[in-house]
Amino acid sequence: MAISFSYETKEELARVKKRRSCCTEAELVAILRLAKLPPLPGGEGVLLVTPHAATARRVYSLARAALGLPVQVNTERRGGKGRPVFKVLTPAGREALNDWLAARKGVPEHQCCRAAYLRGTFLVAGSVNKPAATHHLEFLIEGEEEAARLKDIMQHLDLQPRLSRRQRSLVLYLKDSEQIVRALSLMGAHSAVLAYENVLIFKEMRNRVNRLVNCETANLSKTVETGLRQVENIRYLVATLGWEGLPASLQEIAALRLQHPEASLKELGEMLVPPVGKSGVNHRLRRLENLTRQVRARRGETDAADDNLSG
Questions:
Q1: Distances in Å between the alpha carbon of 125 and those of 46, 91, 140, 278?
Q2: Of all residues in the chain, what percent carry a pLDDT higher than 70?
């Protein structure tokens, strides 16, 4: 079975090293606030029910460090088949668990704790699209109070989430790729950040190449169109004045342009003896265009092409 980018990100977050007791507590508070905590027979308190083994191990580790209560993990298969479900619980009872959580109603004060709170929220209520798809990271939250709290925490972390409703839940989400990368980095998903940035770099390089190709194509088309127009002018001058009617200083460039209508100014200049720079070649070709305009005016001729001689 293919593993999603969200799953891989949660696997990585579940392995983030616990550094401070305050951050450990903040992460666990987020998980317990968002996880459903139905009481089990015998007065046991459930911390989390999840099919994700890494998340279950994370909650077990956090709870052992922060609660000061006995913690255990039970595994079962629903109906005896399918993927296993992991239940992290404390035999000390639901009341002790609720008392611990009730004493921590506020918002974390420190940035490190806010980042840890965001990580815990993502583990139980978050998802992120793979980088190559549409940029989207979201938290599915039940309850106005918790949604407002999470939004406040994210804004303190310089994240600007949008809010929408999905059935009975609220969704806080990010669409900007830089914001998503920042959120992943704050939570500690550094491998996910690298994967995301690699895709962004690839997309930027591809877009840059496309822009360069389009620019080169446009320049090439312009060069060819200009060359063909200049060839038409030179043929007109030769037909009306003859080669001897052209100034001697322009005869060489006129002959080269007839032979190489697709050549750029630089290429034409390199063919001259002695070689001439782009500005010199451009000056001579413009003299030929002006001469064409003068001859047409003297002969009383009009030509649609004449309107574009200086284009």
A1: 17, 25, 5, 64
A2: 91
